[in-house]
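Q: I have 201 residues here and want to know how they pack in 3D. Can you give me a structure?
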Amino acid sequence: MRKRQVFIAAAIFSSRSLSLAFNSSPHNFQYQQFYHSRALSKMSYSPDFKNIGEEKTYIDKLALILLNSNNKQLVARSHGKSVFFTPGGKREPNETDEQALIRECKEELSVCLTSFSMNPVGIEFYGTFEAQAFGKAPGTMVRMTCFRVTPRDAEIELEKLVKASDEVEELNWIDSTFEREKLTITGIMILEDLKEKGLID
């Protein structure tokens, strides 16, 4: 079985990397400092990330990393929220990762990942990103397992098909210059990883 790479935000919480200050509202944070690709390339990897550091509470989520023909990443913003997130969500009982991702994309992006194209479409694992959960109490971590649609032609085809559902107020295609204050911590990590790998501009 192939080991899945895990990117852990805790490894870059230092004076040289990412520092967050939460204000009186749990739904807002102030982005203070972020050293991008070089810091991210040093993040920890472990096939058994459940036992890293002190015991924490984990929220497991799945997400779709979707890149358009201009090498920009799709992000979404919920009603009443100020930050964008990577489309996806939690698994329902007895769902596989693929089933959960397909359902969440139908609910948020109004598209079915398995039937939108006349050509064969695959869902490929990209990476797992772990960080403090946005808007949650300190020590509540989100573990986001990310996937991409393959082949690249199919991914580009989705560009014109995705649209915001009733659950989503806004969709946006972003590149590496996008304001970090408008992204969740995992969103920042994903964006920087895509830039490091040359997948976005």
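Q: Anything worth noting?
A: Residues 118 and 154 are 9 Å apart (CA to CA). The radius of gyration is 16 Å.
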